[in-house]
Structures are given as structure tokens and as C-alpha cells.
Design brief:
The complex is a heterodimer.
Chain A (H helix, E strand, L loop, with lengths): L1 H20 L5 H34 L9 H20 L3 H26 L5 H26 L13 H16 L8 H4 L4 H25 L4 H11 L37 H8 L6 H5 L1 H4 L6 H13 L1 E2 L17 E2 L20 H5 L6 H5 L6 H15 L7 H11 L22 H4 L4 E4 L7 H16 L4 E3 L9 H5 L3 H15 L6 E4 L2 H10 L13 H4 L1 E4 H10 L13 E3 L13 H9 L23 H4 L7 H12 L3 E4 L2 H8 L7 E4 H8 L14 H12 L1
Parallel strand pairs in A: 3-4, 3-5, 5-6, 7-8, 8-9
Antiparallel strand pairs in A: 1-2
Helix pairs in contact in A: 1-2, 2-4, 2-8, 3-9, 4-5, 4-6, 5-6, 6-8, 8-9, 9-10, 19-29, 24-25
Chain B lengths: L1 H9 L4 E5 L2 E3 L6 E3 L1 H16 L4 E8 L3 H11 L11 E6 L7 H11 L3 E5 L11 H9 L3 E2 L2 E8 L2 E7 L5 E7 L2 E5 L11 H6 L1 E5 L7 H5 L20 H9 L15 H15 L4
The chains are: A mainly alpha, B alpha/beta.
Bound molecules: iron/sulfur cluster (2 copies).
Protein name (chain B): Electron transfer flavoprotein subunit beta
InterPro entries (chain B): ETF_a/b_N (IPR014730), ETF_b (IPR012255), Rossmann-like_a/b/a_fold (IPR014729)
Family (chain B): Belongs to the ETF beta-subunit/FixA family.
């Protein structure tokens, strides 16, 4: 606080200086005045910014420790910003160009301004560059202003509405004060009695610009995103995401350490770089726009959630938030503090804690928000962290949650079925068991769909396909357990780790080259999350290193390419494909299912939201179990997407998606798993066909045959 | 707020002992918190919220190993954010196959809680459902079975709602100390949380244990599902069919005794038991 007061004093004396000097003035008096004033202003603003930065950093450091390589992160920063971040921002070309012009112009202008006006290096070349930079920034700010004229609902208003004006103030101010440096000052401008007034106005504009851009950057204005965002990119907790990588597995809780908190109870239970990440949010609302729970009118808005976390670690109420609320929850009733519980421990009569539990339980962990966020903020991590506290410490998993978790503990499957009945659906199929064979090429992982009558059809189809391609495979049968996906997403890390460790021990007994599963959730957990629990000698940190895990669509595509499957041409109507979140965004597999469909002779009529931007079916993250009511149902919205594509059939690759989409009443399209479509199209391989011959060419002809 | 608080202060809490056993999952046979005992603890926790100042002593008599420890801990995992200091449970440790009744009686007599809550029947071992009655007999306390809820506790008298067949309820006033046993009619137990369960501690109380000589002579084997007898319904209308499906078999004979002295009631029961050959 002291620093702030003395800095203010400095500004006042500077202004007094201005007044003293501004007699009805001549040209050089004005420029002398500017020459004196500008360095004072610039360094005052910089000093204030530094003080603000220290305060902000203190706020972040309230969080728990997290190991990141600070130096490496800082060195990687330019690349992460210029390449990775702009890769995401660039999905909206207009905004990315606007941002390049504005931010690039600002950074250049700020540096040059410090040199030219702060340190008084009145080099015409530097001055020229400065004019150029501020012009670029000004043009950018025009576009920012245009977007703010009629802003879409997802953008936050409030202080963000003044940002384009502040940007203009800064760029115009800098531009004008630089004109004399390059000797371009129009004579009439500063002559006569109005000149001191003009200089004062100019100084005012510069102060405004400096205030927003330097002071506001670290004291919590909209420009905070530049400061926090840069550091967030440098110290991101998932550095693997940069450079085109993927990092989607949840981070393990250390259950061995009894002193470590089980999840996040209060804002300071987040790691410091998570807090920093929340602070980087630009409130662009892209996450809000893609969130299925928000669209369904459930009380969740990922943008608001991130802002609430900022309110939490800085302390205060959410009344200052100027964006869309959680559907059905008015803004201004919730408050938080760094050491106060985020979720009210008991139902409070007056006022509320920071977040209501149903907000957290609405999330389907679809990761659409994370993929869409230009600041690469990790919403799902935060949500699961808080769910962990609710489940592990408070025993407050809503609705069917407790029952499902109890079942998982007692029977290793969420439905509470007899584990010995896992293979009942295949009683007539005579499936080879791992326990008998010990060594095969492919381990077929069934997943809990084995207990579900709808998914049993998919599994039977998949077995038919594997047999047609003469794949050497076996199943674990009763030895298989739930992968732990649902338990983990419901916050029950203890049950997840118990299941994971027992599954890993079972897998370690046998030898196989790859695991194939038709359940993307098992696929994700086995492939991306078991790695943390492997013992020494079980393949290191990456589960995929010792066992390759594949989704059945990937495997079928490979079988087809190897010429081991032959299909009859497709005779049905138009087909669309629904990307399961846990296959697409979690594992980056968009192409294989489409390749299989193409091989079947199907031309996919894509939905508007497909691939990376596919809309969730509503079945992930335990959402059907916690079942938080909204205005609409997520699967209904997705089936509506299907309808709009005009398809009569929607191909899926996930038991959850099948269940959710088939549960839609009066649906316009049929729901089939890719395995079923493939099994139906199988034809005997022509005799004499040499297996192992690449079939890519045949694939093309089949497609052409159909288009005829 | 004010008058409510004062009222609450007027009613001091009571000491409750909740007897818990190690359950057995019906499908997999894994150790777990026993369904009915967990409901008993739930009842105690709910009462504690109503009657601050109550103390809950969770009591288990039996052997302790890795499996059973996890099951016992999961009872204490129910004490989430309630703040009644339910961090530990009293363990009357005895070797497998010992009779639990005497140590329990001794402990209860020594600690003299006002209320003892127990599940009606254990999920493993004999599971005869006799324990509450044996305790009541030894301690000479009244016993109420099949409890649905506890309504009030005032001046040493507890008002209870007892569940009767077909959804009926009976309100009873019982002088403390008393034993109550719960079955499926009581509210379902809350979720057990990992954190509090992991932090729970065990206080081992000294016991004298005596081998259950009768049990030792028994031959135990897994139960077989008995085939259900088909109910042949000859009903003319849908209403009759519904009635037949919804009703339980009506007892034949019997008599309803009202306004009789306890002696007359006991006499009637004694006579019936003789007739049925239960008592000889
Ligand atoms: S969290 Fe990311 S996507 Fe959402 S508003 Fe903030 S910056 Fe935008
Ligand atoms: S993961 Fe999906 S459901 Fe959850 S907040 Fe993000 S977009 Fe919404």
C-alpha cells in the first residue's frame, strides 16, 4: 500500500509540474513539458505495474506447490504463445488477426515508448517504428471495438466493454506524443492559447492508456490476461499440450500421503499454477458456447466457474461478474475467500459459498471447453479436483452416485452385477479365455457394456468381425473389472486406484501385443491413466509403451487396410458419425472411424459440430448417474444435430453414446455402433485372396461403386 | 433462531451406543458395512443433528483383520462434516468364533449409554437376529424392534415410530435406557467417505471372551435358494388380481387382544406357543 501512495504522490507532483509550466504557451514550452512529464508518467505506471504484479503473484502462491521447470517454461513461452495459443485462437480468423495487430502493436509500442519517451532516446528511426506500432494497435483496437458493438452473449461485458476505448486511448496517445520525435508535429497544433489545454488533454489520454495497459495489467483490469496468461503458458501444468501434444489423463492423487488433501476444498488447495491459470481467462466465453451442460440449461457455465475460482483466491463476491450466469442461478449471491470452503459444508440459510455442488456435477467431462479455450485453461481438472473433495471427504456424491460407487467397491462393476456373469452374453460364442491361452495377439477388453443388453449386441458384432479377420484374440472374462473411469470422474480416486491396480496386476499375468476395446472410456483410462500406477518393469510411465491400447474402430480400419476384411457395398440411407468425446478430444482419433465408414461405402454426412468440436452425448463424467436437472436433455440436443444433418442413421463408437442417443424418444435416426455396421457388411473373403495385401485401392473402388 | 436455540439447550444430548458388525455383500461375499447396522448408525447421526451434545459410541465386538478393518472403517466414513467427534470406534476384540453377547453386555453395563441401536440381524455368522433380545434380557432394558424413526427425546423418554407390516406405523414412548433394533424400514445409510474412514482410529477395550461352544458344533454351509411356491390366483377382475398381488397372506385364526393386562397378554402368548409346539 505504501508504494501505491507514494506513487500517487508522484503523479500529483507531476501534474503540478504540468500546471506550473503551462503558461499561455509557445511550442517548445509544451514539448518541454511533455518531455518532463512523459518519463514520469511512464515510470510511475511501470512502478505501479510491478507492485501489482508482486501482489498478484502472492495471490497465486497461496496455492499448493506444483513442480514445473520455471526456466524451461519461460524459454518456451514465445513459442507456446505464438504457435500453440494462436493455433487455438486462429480457429476464429478475425479475432486472431485482431489480436495479432493489437497485442503485437501494443508490445512493440510499449517497449519503444519506454525507450523513446521514458529514457528519452529520441531517435527518429525508433520514433518511426513507434508510430507504426501504435498505428497497428489502433487498427486492431478498431476491430476490437467493432466486435464490442454488438457482442455475442458468450462475451463478458462490464469492464471488458471499455477495453477497446482504452486501447484506442493508448495507441492514439502514443501516436500523438511521438509525432514531435520524428519532426512531424503540425505547427498549428500546439501554437496559440489552446496549446496547454491540448497538452493536458493529451497527457490525460496517455494516463488513461497507461492506466489500463500497465496498471490494469497487474491490478485486475481486463489486461490482466496478458500478464497472467503469459505466465500461465510458461508454467502450465500440462506442458505436454504444447507443440501439438495431448495430455488428457487426470492427475493422480497421492493417497499414500495421509497429510495431502483429498481434492480441493478451498481455493488454496489448488496448485499455484492452477490458480494462475484461472487468472489468465479472457472471458471470451468460447467454453460457454460449446458446453453441453450450459446449452441444456443445467447450472454450469465453465467461464463463470473459472471466474468464480478467481473470486475465490482473491476473495470477494461474484457480483462483479458481467457475463452469462450459471443457468438458473442469479449472480451476486455467492462469495468466497482463499481459505473458505468453495462448497458450503451444510446448507446455509443466508448467503452462499462460492459454488453450488450441482454446478460441478453437471459437467460431463467432455473437454470441449478445454479444447476451445484460447488460454488453454484446464476446466475439467478443476472440476474433478473439487468433486474429489465432495466424494472423498464429504461423502456427497449426488443421486445414484453413492450406490454406483458402493457397487464398484463390492462387485467391481457399477451395476452391482455378479462379476462371474460378465461373460453370460457370450455363453454360445465360446470365447477364448486369457487364463487358458496365456498369450495371444489381441486382448479384447469388454468393458462394463458386457452387462448391458444393448452393448452386448455391439460386442457380439465385434467378435464376429474379429473372427472373420481371423484375429488371434482372447478375453479376460470374469477376471476383468471396471476400468475405474466412472469412479474417477465421480471423484472417488480411492476406488479408481484400487480398480486400476488390480486390473494392472491381472494384465501383467498375460502376454499380448495390444488391447482392443469398443469402449472409449476404458480405452482412455487404460491408455492414458494407468501409466501412473505401473510398477517398475511394467513399461515405465506410459502404459501404451508396454501394451498398445486401441479402439475397435482403429483396429478394424487396420484389419481392412491389411486386406483381412471384405465388405458388401452399403445399401442403406445417409449416415452421420458422432465422435465420442473420449475417443476424439481425449485420444485424437477422428480419422479411423471415418475410414471404416468409407470402407463400408458410406459417405458421412457430417454434423455441424463434429470432430474436435463434436458435441457430447451427455453420457460422460458420471453425468447420467448424478443426473442434475436442466431445461433440456443433452442427448436430445445431440439427436437434433443428427436430424439436421439429414442422416437416417448415426454411427457411434461408444456404449455410453449408444445408450444416451438411443434413449432419445421420437428420434429421427437409428443408432448403430461401427462394429455392428461392419459385422452386417461382412462377406466371405473370396477364395485365393492373399491376406496381407494392402487394400487401400479397393477402398476407393468400393466408394465409387456406391456413388454410381 | 433464538428461541429455537434455547429450546435445544434445554434438551441435553444423550449417550448412544451403536453396535456394528461386519457385513457380507450378497453377491460377492466381500466384507462391507452391514446394511442394517449402517442404518442404525444413520439413525444415530440424524438424531445427533437434532440433539446437539449427544455422544455416539460405535461399538464392535469381534476379530479384526485387513478385510474387516476396511469394513469397520467405512462406518466411520459416514461421519462427514457432522462434527460429533466420531473419529474412533470402540473395539471389543475377541477371537473368531467367540460369543459377542457377554462382552457387549459387560461393556454396555459399564459405560451405561441411554440408548443402544443395533441392526436386527447380522449378515454373517449365525445371523439369528437374537442379539438384541439377548442384550435386552441381560441388561433388563426395554427393546423396540423394526424402528422407522426417532421423533423426540425428552426427560428420559424417547418417542419412536415403529414400522409394522404393510407400511403401518406405531408411535411408542419408551423410558430410557432402551435398546432399539433397525431393519429395512429405517432410512437408508448415507454414503461413506474415504477421508474420514481412513483417519478413523480404534480404541481397543479389554474384554473377556468366551468361545461360543454351541456355534463350534454347528456345521455351516452356503444357503441354497429355495424355489418359490407359485401363488395361484383365481381372480375375475383386474382389481382382484391387484389385491391378490399386493396383499400378504392373511394369517388364519389368531385373535386381536385389546385392553388386556400384561399378564393376560403373556398368558395368551404362552398358550399359543404351547399350541404351536414352540414351547414344550
Ligand atoms: S476459460 Fe478460456 S474459453 Fe472460457 S472464457 Fe476463459 S479464456 Fe475463454
Ligand atoms: S467438460 Fe464439457 S460439460 Fe464440462 S464444463 Fe467443459 S464443456 Fe461443459
Amino acid at each position: 500500500m505504501d508504494g501505491k501512495c507514494s506513487a500517487q504522490g508522484w503523479v500529483y507532483s507531476a501534474l503540478a509540474e504540468v500546471c506550473r509550466r503551462s503558461s499561455p504557451a509557445a511550442k517548445d514550452e509544451v514539448s518541454t513539458m511533455l518531455e518532463t512529464l512523459l518519463p514520469i508518467l511512464i515510470f510511475t505506471a511501470l512502478a505501479l505495474a510491478v507492485i501489482g504484479a508482486v501482489r498478484r503473484i502472492r495471490l497465486w502462491r497461496q496455492g499448493r506447490p506444483s513442480r514445473v521447470n520455471l526456466l524451461q517454461g519461460l524459454m518456451a513461452l514465445p513459442r507456446r504463445y505464438l504457435v500453440d495459443l494462436h493455433h487455438v485462437v486462429g480457429r476464429d480468423k478475425m479475432i486472431s488477426n485482431t489480436h495479432v495487430a493489437t497485442a503485437g502493436g501494443f508490445v512493440a509500442a510499449a517497449v519503444l515508448m519506454i525507450l523513446v519517451h521514458g529514457l528519452g532516446i529520441a531517435n527518429p528511426l525508433l520514433g518511426g517504428l513507434l508510430l507504426l506500432a501504435s498505428t497497428s494497435m489502433f487498427v486492431g483496437s478498431l476491430f476490437v471495438a467493432r466486435r464490442r458493438l454488438n457482442p455475442p452473449a458468450r462475451l463478458s461485458k462490464g469492464p471488458w466493454m471499455r477495453l477497446p476505448k482504452s486501447l484506442m486511448a493508448f495507441s492514439i496517445g502514443v501516436f500523438l506524443i511521438t509525432l514531435p520525435t520524428v519532426g512531424l508535429l503540425p505547427d498549428g497544433l500546439v501554437e496559440g492559447s489552446g496549446s496547454w489545454l491540448l497538452a493536458l488533454v493529451l497527457a490525460g489520454v496517455v494516463v488513461w492508456g497507461l492506466g489500463e495497459m500497465f496498471f490494469g495489467m497487474t491490478w485486475g483490469g481486463p489486461m490482466k490476461h496478458a500478464f497472467a496468461g503469459a505466465l500461465h503458458l510458461a508454467f502450465h501444468r500440462r506442458a505436454e499440450r504444447f507443440g501439438g501434444g495431448r495430455s488428457t489423463g487426470l492427475k493422480a492423487l497421492n493417497l499414500e500421503d495421509e497429510a495431502a488433501p483429498l481434492g480441493v476444498e478451498k481455493p488454496t488447495d489448488f496448485t499455484w499454477n492452477q490458480l494462475l491459470g484461472f487468472d489468465a481467462c479472457v472471458q471470451c466465453g468460447r467454453c460457454e458456447a460449446v458446453c453441453p451442460a450450459f446449452a441444456a440449461g443445467q447450472p454450469l457455465n465453465p467461464k463463470k466457474l473459472i471466474q468464480d475460482m478467481v473470486v475465490g483466491f482473491a476473495g470477494g463476491s461474484d457480483a462483479g461478474y458481467a457475463g452469462s450466469p450459471y443457468p438458473g442461478k442469479p449472480v451476486g449471491e455467492h462469495q468466497g475467500a482463499p481459505h473458505a470452503p468453495i462448497l458450503a459444508p451444510v446448507v446455509m440459510k443466508e448467503g452462499k459459498a462460492l459454488v453450488d455442488a450441482e454446478t460441478l456435477w453437471s459437467c460431463t467431462t467432455c473437454r470441449a471447453c478445454v479444447e476451445e479455450c484460447p488460454m488453454m485453461i484446464e476446466h475439467v481438472d478443476a472440476i474433478v479436483d473439487m468433486r474429489r473433495h465432495l466424494t472423498l471427504e464429504r461423502g456427497k456424491t449426488p443421486n445414484k452416485g453413492a450406490e454406483v460407487l458402493d457397487n464398484l467397491i463390492a462387485t467391481d462393476n457399477p451395476g452391482g452385477f455378479d462379476p462371474g456373469s460378465r461373460l453370460n452374453w457370450a455363453a454360445d460364442l465360446n470365447l477364448p479365455l486369457m487364463a487358458d491361452l496365456k498369450q495371444v495377439d489381441v486382448l479384447l477388453w469388454l468393458g462394463d457394456g458386457a452387462f448391458d443388453m444393448r452393448n452386448q449386441r455391439t460386442l457380439r458384432a465385434l467378435v464376429k468381425v474379429l473372427r472373420a479377420a481371423e484375429v488371434d484374440f482372447a478375453v479376460l472374462g470374469a477376471e476383468e473389472r471396471d476400468s475405474g473411469d466412472v469412479a474417477r470422474r465421480l471423484g472417488d480416486e480411492a476406488t479408481f486406484q484400487s480398480l486400476a491396480k488390480r486390473n494392472i496386476a491381472t494384465l501383467a499375468k498375460y502376454r499380448f501385443q495390444q488391447i482392443v476395446t469398443c469402449d472409449p472410456h476404458s480405452f482412455h483410462v487404460l491408455g492414458n491413466e494407468y501409466g501412473d500406477f505401473l510398477q517398475e518393469g511394467q513399461g515405465g510411465s506410459d502404459f501404451n509403451a508396454s501394451y498398445e491400447v486401441r479402439h475397435h474402430s482403429t483396429f478394424i480400419a487396420e484389419l481392412y487396410d491389411a486386406g483381412r476384411l471384405t465388405f458388401a457395398p452399403w445399401k442403406g440411407g445417409s449416415v452421420t458419425y458422432h465422435d465420442p468425446c473420449y475417443l476424439g478430444r481425449y485420444n485424437g482419433e477422428y480419422e479411423a472411424p471415418r475410414r471404416v465408414l468409407k470402407a463400408l461405402g458410406i459417405q458421412v454426412a457430417e454434423m455441424e459440430r463434429s470432430g474436435l468440436r463434436s458435441r457430447c452425448c451427455g453420457g460422460g463424467g458420471g453425468a447420467p448417474i448424478t443426473d442434475i436437472p436442466g431445461e433440456r436433455r443433452i442427448p436430445d440436443m445431440r439427436m437434433n444435430d443428427v436430424k439436421e444433418s439429414g442422416a437416417e442413421l448415426v454411427a457411434v463408437g461408444c456404449p455410453q453414446c449408444t445408450a444416451m442417443l438411443e434413449g432419445v424418444v421420437d428420434a429421427s435416426a437409428e443408432v448403430r455402433d461401427i462394429a455392428e455396421l461392419v459385422a452386417d457388411a461382412l462377406v466371405e473373403r473370396p477364395a485365393g485372396d492373399v491376406s496381407g495385401v494392402s487394400r487401400r485401392t479397393t477402398a476407393v473402388t468400393t466408394a465409387e461403386e456406391v456413388t454410381l | 433462531m433464538r428461541p429455537e436455540q434455547q429450546q435445544k439447550q434445554q434438551k441435553p444430548g444423550i449417550d448412544v451406543a451403536v453396535l456394528v458388525s461386519i457385513g457380507r455383500h450378497p453377491t460377492t461375499g466381500r466384507a462391507r458395512r452391514a446394511e442394517q447396522d449402517a442404518r442404525g448408525l444413520e439413525l444415530a447421526l440424524a438424531m445427533e443433528a437434532e440433539l446437539p451434545g449427544s455422544r455416539i459410541d460405535v461399538l464392535h465386538a469381534g476379530s479384526q483383520d485387513v478385510d474387516s478393518e476396511a469394513a469397520l472403517r467405512s462406518y466411520l466414513g459416514m461421519a462427514t462434516g457432522v462434527g460429533m467427534g466420531l473419529e474412533s470406534m470402540t473395539l471389543l476384540e475377541q477371537p473368531e468364533g467367540s460369543d459377542a453377547i457377554l462382552p457387549l453386555v459387560e461393556h454396555l453395563a459399564a459405560t451405561s449409554p441411554q440408548l443402544v441401536i443395533t441392526g436386527a440381524r447380522a449378515e454373517r455368522g449365525e445371523g439369528s437376529g437374537l442379539l438384541p433380545y439377548a442384550l435386552a434380557e441381560h441388561l433388563g432394558w426395554p427393546l423396540v424392534n423394526s424402528l422407522a424413526s426417532i421423533e423426540t427425546v425428552e426427560n428420559g423418554v424417547i418417542t419412536l415410530l415403529q414400522a409394522l407390516p404393510r407400511g403401518q406405523r406405531r408411535r411408542l414412548k419408551v423410558r430410557l435406557p432402551a435398546i432399539i433394533s433397525v431393519d429395512e424400514a429405517a432410512p437408508a445409510a448415507r454414503q461413506s467417505a474415504f477421508g474420514p474412514a481412513r483417519r478413523a482410529t480404534f480404541l481397543v477395550a479389554p474384554t473377556t471372551s468366551e468361545a461360543d461352544s454351541e456355534l463350534a458344533q454347528w456345521h455351516l454351509s452356503p444357503a441354497r435358494k429355495r424355489p418359490k411356491r407359485l401363488k395361484i390366483i383365481k381372480a375375475a377382475s383386474a382389481r382382484d388380481r391387484f389385491k391378490a398381488a399386493a396383499s400378504k397372506a392373511e394369517g388364519k385364526g389368531g385373535q386381536v387382544l385389546t385392553d388386556v393386562t400384561p399378564e393376560q397378554g403373556a398368558e395368551a402368548i404362552y398358550k399359543l406357543l404351547k399350541e404351536e409346539g414352540v414351547l414344550r
